[in-house]
C-alpha cells in the first residue's frame, strides 16, 4: 500500500486533528493514538508536521493585555532593564494615559521593594500612577521635579502623597513649578526646605519614574507651556525630545539649553546614573522621541502600548543596544530583575549636564 505524503490532504488533516487533540484538548500522545487508530510514534511525527506546516504556532505570552513577546523584543533591541508593552487600543490619548498610568502603578508596585527609593517626576502619563494601587512597599517616595499646571491633570505632590499613604514609607515632596521666569527665582525655590530635602534624596533613588515628550506642539507639555522664543531657543540647541525636563538630541544625548537654569528638574547627568529609570510613553507620534530616549541610555525601562512599541522598533538606525550601557549606573538594590515576578496582566536640582 502506498505511503501517504506528509503534505498530502489526508495527512495534513490528520496532523491538524492530532494537534487539536494534543494542544487544545490536552490529550496525551497515547490517548491520541487510540482515538485515531495509529501508533504514538506516528502521533509525534504528525505533531512535528503540524508545526512545520504552520498549523500550530507557539507564542510566548502572558494572559490578558500584557504582550510579553513584544516586551521581550523591545528590551532586547535596546538593552533595557525592563520593558512592559500592553495591548491597549489607540482610541484616544486620554484613554491611553489613564490605562498606562494604572499599568505603570502595577509595574512599579511589583518591581519596588522596601530597600528601594522610588522617584517620581512630573508627567501627564504618570498622573494616574496611584489610581489602581492597593498595596506598595514601605520605601521612600521622592519627588524628582517641579510640576506644570494644566487643566485636568493630577498634581504631582498628590501622587507622591497617595503612594506614601498606601505604602507607609517616608515622603519627600514639595509644591513648586517645573519652569520659572528667571534663574534667581529657581535658586530661591531650590533653597526651600522641602525642595532641598527632596534634592538631597535624588542621588539615593533606585527606581525613577519619568515621561517622554517629543519637542513638537502637542507632544510635550513643556513645549506647550513655553512662549515661542523659548521653544525656538531649545530647538536651536538641537533638542528633539525631553524626559521629564531633561532635553535630548536626536541621538539621545543630553543637550544644554538656555532654560536649564530656570528649571526645577533632576539633571540628566544624575538621571543617567540611577539604577532604573522607567519611562511611560504613549502616542505613535512620539516614536522618534522614544527611540532617542532609549538609544541615549538616560532611560533604561519603558512602559508603553503595542502600536508605539512597534513604531519604535521599525525606526532604522545603528544597533541601539550596542550603545546602551549600564556601566555608569549604580547597582540596583533588592531582588535582581530576573528574580522579580512580572507585572500582573490586566525635585530637584539645577541642571548641570
Helix and strand arrangement:
Blueprint: H1 9-24, H2 29-36, H3 40-52, H4 68-78, E1 82-86, H5 93-111, E2 118-120, E3 141-143, H6 156-167, E4 171-172, H7 183-190, H8 193-201, E5 207-214, H9 221-225, H10 228-236, E6 241-243, E7 246-248, H11 268-271, E8 276-280, H12 287-296, E9 301-305, H13 306-313, H14 320-323
Helix pairs in contact: 1-3, 2-3, 4-13, 12-13
Offer a quick outline of the entry.
The protein is α/β, with parallel strands linked by helices and 353 residues long.
Beta content:
5-15%
CATH class of the largest domain: Alpha Beta
Biggest beta sheet attributes: 9 strands, mixed
Name given to the CATH architecture of the largest domain:
3-Layer(aba) Sandwich
Shape from CA axes? elongated
Termini separation: 80 Å
What is the helical fraction, as a range of percent?
25-40%
Number of strands: 9
Low-confidence stretches: 335-353
Oligomer status = single chain
Radius of gyration equals 25 Å
Q: Give average pLDDT, whole number.
A: 85
CATH-derived topology of the largest domain = Rossmann fold
Query: How many domains would you count in the coordinates?
Result: 2
Number of helical elements: 14
What is the N-to-C order of secondary-structure elements (H for helix, E for strand)?
Answer: HHHHEHEEHEHHEHHEEHEHEHH
Helix vs. strand class: alpha/beta
Amino acid at each position: 500500500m502506498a505511503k501517504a505524503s506528509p503534505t498530502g490532504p489526508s495527512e495534513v488533516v490528520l496532523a491538524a486533528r492530532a494537534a487539536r487533540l494534543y494542544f487544545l484538548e490536552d490529550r496525551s500522545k497515547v490517548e491520541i493514538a487510540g482515538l485515531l487508530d495509529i501508533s504514538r510514534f506516528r502521533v509525534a511525527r504528525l505533531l512535528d508536521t503540524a508545526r512545520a506546516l504552520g498549523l500550530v504556532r507557539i507564542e510566548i505570552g502572558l494572559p490578558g493585555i500584557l504582550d510579553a513577546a513584544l516586551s521581550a523584543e523591545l528590551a532586547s533591541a535596546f538593552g533595557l532593564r525592563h520593558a512592559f508593552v500592553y495591548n491597549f487600543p489607540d482610541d484616544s490619548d486620554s484613554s491611553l494615559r489613564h490605562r498606562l498610568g494604572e499599568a505603570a502603578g502595577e509595574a512599579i508596585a511589583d518591581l519596588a521593594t522596601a530597600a528601594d527609593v522610588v522617584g517620581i517626576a512630573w508627567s501627564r502619563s504618570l498622573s494616574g500612577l496611584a489610581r489602581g494601587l492597593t498595596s506598595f512597599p514601605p520605601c521612600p517616595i521622592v519627588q524628582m521635579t517641579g510640576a506644570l499646571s494644566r487643566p485636568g491633570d493630577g498634581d504631582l505632590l498628590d501622587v507622591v502623597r497617595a503612594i506614601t499613604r498606601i505604602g507607609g514609607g517616608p515622603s519627600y515632596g514639595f509644591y513648586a513649578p517645573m519652569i520659572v521666569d528667571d534663574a534667581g527665582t529657581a535658586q530661591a525655590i531650590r533653597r526651600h526646605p522641602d525642595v532641598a530635602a527632596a534634592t538631597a534624596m535624588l542621588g539615593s533613588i533606585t527606581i525613577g519614574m519619568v515621561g517622554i515628550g517629543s519637542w513638537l506642539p502637542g507632544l510635550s507639555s513643556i513645549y506647550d507651556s513655553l512662549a515661542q522664543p523659548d521653544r525656538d531657543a531649545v530647538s536651536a540647541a538641537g533638542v528633539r525630545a525631553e524626559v521629564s525636563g531633561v532635553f535630548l538630541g536626536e541621538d539621545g544625548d543630553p543637550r544644554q539649553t538656555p532654560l536649564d537654569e530656570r528649571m526645577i528638574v533632576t539633571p540628566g547627568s544624575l538621571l543617567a546614573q540611577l539604577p532604573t529609570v522607567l519611562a511611560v510613553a504613549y502616542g505613535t507620534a512620539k516614536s522618534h522621541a522614544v527611540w532617542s530616549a532609549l538609544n541615549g541610555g538616560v532611560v533604561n525601562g519603558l512602559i508603553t502600548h503595542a502600536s508605539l512599541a512597534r513604531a519604535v522598533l521599525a525606526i532604522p538606525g545603528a544597533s541601539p543596544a550596542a550603545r546602551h550601557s549600564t556601566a555608569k549606573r549604580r547597582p540596583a538594590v533588592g531582588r535582581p530583575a530576573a528574580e522579580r515576578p512580572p507585572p500582573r496582566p490586566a525635585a530637584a536640582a539645577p541642571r548641570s549636564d
